[in-house]
Amino acid sequence: MKVVIADISHIKYANDICETIEASAQVRGTGIAKRTPEYISTKIENGNAVIALDGETFAGFCYIEKWGHGKFVANSGLIVHPDYRGQGLAKKIKHKVFEHSRNKFPNAKVFSITTGLPVMKMNSDLGYKPVTFSELTDDQTFWDGCQTCKNYDVLTRTNRKMCLCTGMLYDPKKVKKEDKAEVKEKAFKRLKRIKEALFLKKEKNKK
Questions:
Q1: Sorted alphabetically, which keywords does the UniProt record give (predicted)?
Q2: Three-state DSSP state, 10
Q3: What one-character DSSP code corresponds to residue 199?
Q4: 3-state secondary structure (DSSP) of residue 139
Q5: Which residues lie closer than 8 Å to 4 by C-beta, 6 or more apart?
Q6: Where are the beta strands (DSSP E) in the chain?
Q7: Domain 2-170 belongs in CATH node 3.30.450.40
């Protein structure tokens, strides 16, 4: 099994990808926006997709979408073929596409809207935080893409404030601040231990 950044040689899997996404939506009974083979092919051609293959057999897929002139990116269409589920493949694909997104769009906020608890868990492990829809992209084209979802009426009735999906966001600027704070705290604790060790040594020498 290999999980790689997709290239033009993988366009032949576009139909399989779309059929698997649609079949999964029907089985789950939840909202997954439909995608056409042409749309998927464009993502592959632009180097904005990750594919999992078992030899020459399609096993899983996910792609990157760019919104708001590159201020936001989304990892969308995460799917694993039924024959390969329950093996941890979704997590491998998710990590690969997230890494690819961060490398290709280092300053962009990475967001996700999903109804799936496993995806929420994977997002959380990567540093995503739950947010309101108002903190996500205001690019109308993104929200227009939800029209093929069976829950679109919920989104429109609430003036795009909420839906059955949960919004999650990875903000690289906030993560950097958190990392710095963590480093600062670790440095403080280390300094404290050194001082305590020196104090104990000094007290021992007095005796």
A1: Transferase
A2: helix
A3: H
A4: coil
A5: 50, 51, 53, 96
A6: 2-5, 49-54, 57-67, 72-80, 109-114, 129-131, 166-170
A7: no
Average pLDDT along the chain: 84
Reduced 3-state DSSP string for 110-133: EEEEECCHHHHHHHHHHCCEEECH
Please give the DSSP secondary-structure letter assigned to residue 52: E
Q: Tell me the C-alpha distance between 65 and 136, whole Å.
A: 13
The pairing of beta strand 2-5 with beta strand 129-131:
unpaired
In contact, 68 and 138? CB cutoff 8 Å: yes
**How confident is the model at residue 203, as a pLDDT?**
55
In a 13 Å sphere around the CA of 19, the CA atoms on its Cβ side amount to 8
Q: How many residues does the chain have?
A: 207
Q: Residue ranges per domain, the chain?
A: 2-170, 175-207
On the question of pLDDT at 52 being above 90, the answer is yes
**Max mean pLDDT range (31-40, 86-95, 126-135, 173-182):** 86-95
What residues contact residue 77 under an 8 Å CB cut-off, 6+ apart? Answer: 17, 21, 35, 40, 61, 62, 63
End-to-end CA distance of the chain: 65
Distance of CA 119 to the CA centre of its chain: 8
Coil, strand or helix at 177: helix
The residue whose two tokens read 């000094």 is 202
Phi, psi of 70 (to 5 degrees): 90, 0
